[in-house]
Every structure is written in C-alpha cells, then in structure tokens.
Amino acid sequence: MNLKSLLELLADGAFHSGADLGRTLGISRAAVWKQVERLRQLGVDIHSVTGKGYRMPASLYLLDKDIVLHYLGELAPALEDQFDLFFSIDSTNLEAMRQIQQGVASRIIVAEHQRSGRGRRGRTWISPLGASIYASMVVTFSGGMGALDGLSLAVAVMVRRVAVRCGCHGVGLKWPNDLQVDGRKIAGILLEISGDLTGPCRVIIGIGLNVSIPESAARAIDQPFSDLASHSDHTLDRNQVLAMLIQEMHAGLAQFEEDGFAAFHEEWDAADVYKGRSVELVSGSNKVKGVVRGVADTGALLLETDEGIRAMTGGELSYRLREISG
Ligand code: BTN
User: Fold this and answer.
1) pTM of the model
2) Is the confidence at residue 143, as pLDDT, over 80?
C-alpha cells in the first residue's frame, strides 16, 4: 500500500471511514491513521470527524500522465516520451540537472510534491503535495549564453498566459520574473544554466505555479502568496493547467528562439506592476534608488536614477525590488 493509493481514495472530497479505507487498502485502521498523518506532513489537508471518518476539504485532481496527454491534444505524440511524472522528489530542478549529466537535452519533469524545492536566492520553495504545479523543463539553446538574454522574463509572460487561460484576473509581473496578484506571489521561476559561453547550453526552467495552497501548508510560506483558485471562478483540474503550461512553453520557447524577448516585450510592459513607481533595487549591500521605466530587450530593468536611465542587468536572481514610501 502506498500513500498515493490512499490519496486517490480521498481525492473525491467525500467522507471515508477508517474501516472502509483499511478494507479497500488491505491494512488496519491504525495503519490508515498513520498514513493519513504522513499525508498531512506532506502538506495535504485532511479533516477527521468522529463517526464519519476522513475527508479532504475539497476534491483533488491528482496528476495523471494520460490525462495530461489527453489535454495536450496534437502535441501529445511528440511529448509522450519526454515527460516524467514523480509522486515525490527532492526537486524537479535537481532531477533535471541529474538528467543533463546523463546527456538529456530536452525533457519535462513534473512532481506532485517536492521535499527540497529550490527558490531563487537560495530560498526553499515550499511544495505541498497536490497543491500546485512543480515543473522543470530542460531546453537546449544553440547560440551561447547571449541568446538567453531576457529568457526568464519571457518565461514569466508564458506562465502568465496560463494564469489568464485559467480565468485568473489581475495577474501582474514583477521584475525579473515573479507573477503576482495584489502584491501576492502566485508563481516563481528559477532558471539554472549549464554549458559554455559560446556553444550550446542547457537551461533548466523551473516553474512553481500555485494552484490551490491548503491552509496547513500556508503557514510555512514566508512571503505574501496567493494561488490561481483564489482568483478564478473556473474549476481547476491541475492536469489541464499543466497541459496549458506545456503548450504555452512549447509555443513560447519557439517564439523566443526566433525573436528573443522582443516578441514578449509589449505583453511584459502591459503587466508590469512596478512601471512608474519609485523603488530601491537591492543587491547584497548595494542599493540603487530610482523610478522604474520598464525593461530593455535584454531583460534588464530600466531604472531612472539621478544619473539618468540605467539598465540594471546580471544577477537578476539575487536582486530585491521594493517600493519605498515617501
Ligand atoms: C522563486 O523563488 O521565485 C523561484 C521558485 C521556483 C520553484 C520551482 S518549483 C519547480 C522547480 N523545482 C524547484 O526545485 N524549483 C522550481
């Protein structure tokens, strides 16, 4: 018996008694209780009511490769063999790195749960089971590192297109690549690059897209956050959300290879939540104050300072942008 079988039984959101669950799974009621505790530790909300049993507060769409392939439609045959789905993993980005070391050039790695999800600036990406999309894509670019200018911003635009297709309103972008609604993060992107400066390089595009974060997991998240479910009136099947993400990334990356960030610039500008605002850009002990004037085609932040407009580049993964009062 594994945790996944128990989760599949509880996924309908209805009450199930410990005795019924035990009978179906061939284990004792005490063993059911233990497995429920383990699921709770992985971030799943499970209520227990005396006399009724266990239930999840809302029904859960568990990820299923065949269903994702169904939603992928005409892309399915090409991607079927390039797709890994894990129930629980350390980090999909780490798995992507391991696969690159074995020579993989193109892959999509997805997990229901991450034990050590990686965020930017060395932070942890809290990854409760069944609550979000945790996906990493291995992509090979031929033009050296220079061809990657603006990629992380372009990816933010691609992920935003998914949020919009999910009926999520008011999704803004914060440089370099956060998606927010009302100042609360709904998705994060972590790019990790391996290769040389001039030749082909492999890029890991790691995406964490909050779909429906349970209350119990929310306590562990140390920054303002929200999720698609809180801002959409659609019923969100994560299989469909994942298929949309793969479709948008597939089309978007082809567009990026052709035209670079320029192809996404207008869309980025329209969603830029900081444009025209006074900010302080912090990188380690270095602080620069100015007014955000948008982004350049290289993906650099254009900051109007006392010395004129400066393009703030490099180290996008280690900068912090915040509004200053007064
Ligand atoms: C950020 O800090 O904003 C970036 C978060 C990126 C999280 C995703 S989840 C899938 C992939 N695997 C990881 O370990 N991290 C990225």
Assistant:
1) 0.91
2) no
